[in-house]
Amino acid sequence: MKRSAEEAFGGTKRAEKMDSSGVYESRNKKNLVPKLAGVYARSSYPGVACCRDLGHPIDGSRLIETNGDKGYASAALMDPKAYFAQWQQAATAQAVVAEEKPPGASEFVEKSELQQQAMLPHVGDVLGEKGQNFSPVVAIEALCTMAKKSSFKLREDLFKQPHVRQLCKRVQEILKAPPANMDMFDISRAAEALAKFPDDARGDAAMSVGAVANSLSRLKSSDWSADSAAKLLWSLARYGKGEEILKHRQAVTHVVKELVRDKGRRVHDLSYEGLTHILWAVTRARFQKRTGDLQSVHTEDSDNLLFQIAAKRVIDEIDRFPVSLLADIIYTHHEIGIRNERLFRVICPKIVSKQNEIREDQMAKCIKAYARFMIPLKEEAQGFRTMAVVQKGDFLRPSDKPKPQGKKTFDKPQALYPEPMLHAKQ
Fold first, then answer.
1. Where does the record place Basic and acidic residues bias (predicted)?
2. Is 235 a domain residue?
3. I need a surface site. Which of 42, 76, 136, 424 has the fewest CB within 10 A?
């Protein structure tokens, strides 16, 4: 049976002190315990002190040890300075050992430096010199860096360069036959980067991305992240004129059901851009195109639940959302035909106050969406103001504040007769 140190030592606390020579001294001054490895140990029975031969620091679980039912206990008290000095020596020894590089370490460093160069803004210059030496991961990283150009015109100009064309073809081959050690994250990034370039850069990558998207239904939900699935479906919706994602509606339905499962737990794992991408991809997948008929949208129950959970997250985190993504979310609701008045009214002041940060076409789409649902696109209401400015004539002056009139009083009703009228027979 384990007992505490206080019970083992008779229920009393012993006061000790350490002299200048580093010797631990008990109150009875009969037994001295020398300092060893930053630990002071007391013997197995009260009143007598001894030292344990400990050559290394001990953890907190060994500070108090009981010896069965006999009531014997041994306690150790730790000197912080000596313990830290010993820990520092051990850390230094480990650091010296870590400096020895294993075989092949120089190759790993070279690959990491090449990958860092692929992430630089001027990756086009590096691509012309070392593009043929890029590994699949580095090639995807270089294409993703160039795909981050803010203007589509700049990406078109980049694609005109021969080494960029060669890089796009190589990424297409990677998507057709991904290496065995490549995970879903890198594949989704490659598909997203190709989707941001012109149609000529994509080639027949739509078939490869569609096959990868269909494989999500065969994988476990833990094998792919929410952002990776959002990038794949968004890329599939960008290929062509939106007809590619119509061929893979079952994959979209599977991903949406996984996201909204368990009260939308995985929706909160999406980044802001990933949330915008998945909403737009679902909208494109629900279009019904018929020859000679108007375009219609057929949504599912899981789609409506996804938009509800996404709207709640946008409202809760409205201050951290980029305004350009808010504009895309508004137009996505317009395309799918979901009228969420609360969401529209919360986003409205952000769009009006930061309209200089969004493109003209995005602003036009926002106006179109607000006009369709008949929700005013206006600034936030300022509320009641106690002071009004009167502008009339050649002067400006604030109007006089209304004087308090006090509590309103009313005349009490007066009785017509002093006493109630009684019947004559009474």
1. 395-411
2. yes
3. 424
Query: Directed axis angle between helix 301-316 and helix 341-353, to 10°?
Result: 40
Q: How far apart are CA 327 and CA 333, in angstroms?
A: 10
Q: Which of 179, 202, 225 is the last residue of a domain?
A: 202
Domain tally, the chain: 4
In terms of domains, do 26 and 76 share one?
A: yes
350 shares its domain with 372: yes
Whether residue 415 is contained in a domain is answered as: no
Q: Is 322 in the same domain as 347?
A: yes
Instruction: Report yes or no on 389 lying in a domain.
Output: no
Report whether 60 contacts 50 (CB < 8 A): no
- Asked whether residue 216 is assigned to any structural domain, the reply reads yes
- In terms of domains, do 229 and 301 share one? yes
pLDDT digit string (tens) for the chain, length 426 residues: 445 444 444 444 444 444 444 444 444 444 444 444 444 444 444 444 444 444 444 444 444 444 444 444 444 455 767 776 776 777 665 443 334 433 333 333 344 555 555 554 555 555 655 666 688 888 888 888 888 876 788 888 888 888 888 888 989 899 888 888 888 999 999 999 999 998 888 877 778 888 888 888 888 888 889 999 999 999 999 887 778 888 889 999 999 999 999 999 999 999 999 999 999 999 999 998 766 667 788 999 999 999 999 999 999 999 999 999 999 999 999 999 999 999 999 999 999 999 999 999 999 999 999 999 999 998 887 776 666 665 555 555 566 777 887 777 767 777 777 777 676 655
User: Which of 97, 121, 141 is where one domain is finished?
Assistant: 97
Q: Rounded to an integer, what distance in angstroms lies between the CA atom of residue 334 and that of residue 340? A: 10
Whether residues 215 and 197 share a domain: the answer is no
CB contact burial 350-382 (16+ within 10 A = b; e otherwise): bbeeeeeebeeebbebbeebbeeeebebeeeee
- Same domain? For 209 and 302 the reply is yes
